[in-house]
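@channel sequence for tomorrow's demo:
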Amino acid sequence: MSQAEGLTDAGLRTPRAAAVAGVVFSLLTLISFGLLWTAIPADPRASGGWLAANTTEVALALNLIPFAGIAFLWFIGVIRDRLGAREDRFFATVFLGSGLLFLGMLFVTAATVGAMLMAFKDDPVAFGSPVFLFARTLSYNLVNVYMVRMAGVFMMSTSTVAMATHFAPRWLAALGYLLAVLLLLGSPFLRWSFALFPLWVLLLSVHILASRLGRHMES
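structure tokens (generated this afternoon):
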């Protein structure tokens, strides 16, 4: 091995702290969406009184979401590092694509709600306009129709890779399949179903952290 290859290998070694990313994503996502669920009515056609009453909660949730997204990117990197040379190109494409689509829609949703919040501060009367209704309906559909289903696809592809490569326990992969089906089919009827995704990521991250700690103690 040449000197340049050795330096590259040492410089690109995954930091141990990266395994904490899934835990950070899970906690920040549960907190931010918990705040949004309690502050924003389930009906996208509801009046705009929630903006005046829950401005602080909504603003706090929106400020947490970017950090949750950054942690999710690190979590994707942790999974790929865990797979290493065993990564299958087909499932890796579905895994990475669904993860990035989920992240993109998460940021678009947060930006849409943030725009409504800023516009409401400038002109509270304008909330009844068609533009506000469009923004509210757009954010509702992004979360409950598209984003939650991309989370389900991410869980299903990750569970499939886990079954094939054994980088996670089979029971955790089987649980991922079950929860993914609930997200794909039950999200329009169960508003809280999205919470299943960060909870499953939390379980997977704790397993990764525990296994790395075990290997570190053995070495």
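heads up for whoever presents: The first helix runs from residue 3 to 11.
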